[in-house]
Amino acid sequence: MKRKRTAVFSLVAVVLLAFYYFYGGSAVPSGQPRLVRLNSSNVASLRDEFNGTENSVRLLVLLSPT
Predict the structure, then answer these.
(1) What is the DSSP letter of 2?
(2) DSSP letter string over 25-63?
(3) How far apart are CA 21 and CA 52, in angstroms?
(4) Structural element, H or E, at residue 19
(5) pLDDT above 90 as % of the chain
(6) Cα dihedral sign for 34, 39, 40, 46?
(7) pTM (2 decimals)?
(8) pLDDT digits (tens, 9 = 90+) for 8-39
């Protein structure tokens, strides 16, 4: 019975930590815009900002948790 309780507690802890990691608040340094999740509704604004700075070096990095 004690092993089962420990396993359930561990599973709940892992799920809570994963939820906080993926959906918890994030902090950015002062002066930097807040972090934004990329989705189909805001791709156009990203493209416009990216293409608006033609005379500077631009780098776009996409990270996937998988």
Answers:
(1) H
(2) -----TTSPPP----TTTHHHHHHHHHT-TTS-------
(3) 32
(4) helix 2-23
(5) 24
(6) positive
(7) 0.43
(8) 999 999 999 998 888 876 778 888 888 778 88
